[in-house]
Design a protein that fits this description.
This protein is mainly α. Helices cover about 80% and strands about 0% of the residues. It has eight helices and no strands. Helix 2 crosses helix 7, helix 3 packs across helix 4 and helix 4 runs antiparallel to helix 5.
Length: about 180
């Protein structure tokens, strides 16, 4: 176990040093290239900021208005029939928009049901195997200037439902159900 601690302490500095040495050996002005990349990254953040603020505001409004609870109650009645706990519907909906807001909901679920409960396990696994669909689509499509997303949303929703189904199956296997 100590070897993993040792490796984890030094892996990032080793990678950074390797990149710098490689750049120097190739005759690249590493510092200037780094500054150009940092400037480009900063400009990307500036362009994405309105989208990020809009998504965070939308999630906050959904939570505060009670609309999220209304949707989760409606969908939860049906999802319980197929084995997906209705208590996790708000988490699933919020995860499609914001990972950080979903993490906040996950902590609420842990406090209410426990981390080792069936609901806690399903919630943990589902956050790991689903994506922030609308955040990802808006940020990446805006950055790449994609105008027609074609089947991206349908594919992402299908992958999310597959991840949710897998989270139920895996949690039940872990609990021996």
């Amino acid at each position: 176990m100590n070897i993993f601690i040792y490796i984890s302490d030094y892996i990032i500095p080793f990678i950074i040093l390797s990149i710098v040495v490689y750049g120097i050996l190739k005759g690249i002005n590493v510092y200037e290239t780094f500054i150009k990349g940092a400037k480009s990254g900063f400009l990307t953040v500036i362009r994405l900021m309105p989208t990020l603020i809009g998504l965070m505001a939308a999630v906050g409004i959904l939570r505060a208005s009670g609309f999220l609870d209304l949707i989760s109650d409606a969908i939860g009645q049906f999802s319980g029939l197929i084995g997906f706990p209705g208590e996790l519907v708000p988490l699933t909906v919020v995860k499609m928009f914001s990972s950080s807001a979903a993490t906040g909901l996950l902590l609420d679920i842990f406090n209410e049901f426990g981390t080792d409960s069936r609901i806690g396990l399903i919630a943990s696994i589902s956050l790991c195997c689903t994506e922030t669909i609308f955040y990802t689509m808006s940020v990446y499509f805006m950055t790449a200037k994609v105008r027609h997303s074609r089947y991206t949303l349908a594919g992402a929703l299908l992958a999310t439902f597959a991840g949710l189904a897998a989270s139920v199956v895996l949690a039940d296997l872990m609990l021996g159900l």
